Amino acid sequence: MPLAQPQTTLSLDEFLARPETEPATEYVNGVASQKSMPKGKHSRLTWRLCSAINAIAEGRRIGSASPELRCTFDGRSIVPDVAVFRWERIPFEDDGEIPDDFLTYPDWIIEILSPGQGPNAVIEKITHCLEQGAKLGWLIDPSDRSVLMFQNQQNPKLCRGNDPLISLSGFDLELTASDLFNWLKM
Q: CB 3.0–4.6 Å: which of 24, 40, 89, 138 could bond 110 by disulfide?
């Protein structure tokens, strides 16, 4: 087994000056670490979640969901699997287009565990977003068909089966854990 290489710390500006990687690299506490390459279930859930949320939210100008959107705030630069922003918090440019750089936290962060990925770093990413002002976080675990939901100043709630999933107020996304995981069947 090879020895782990020592991690070099760098500044946020140094990190942001680097070229983007595939899969994305995130920056937390001076350390850059590359995300896992999304696989089939991860990709399918990401696509379906963005589609379902945007079908409800974009036309009514309530918000928008984006896959793999870099969000830089509070000295970090993260790439949630799905970042959902309320309409009034989308940093539109003067011409009405969205910018390339989102220098804020998402209102709702959704992360999907990949096979072999430990949950602690992902939970820390979600809770850090909540500490900054995000309202909701989901940690989806396809291996055990569960969704762990986080809200400010509340205990996390684990949902399985017919448990309804909480969405941001006004989004009216009626979805159970079973509905979510049924998207994996085509």
A: 138
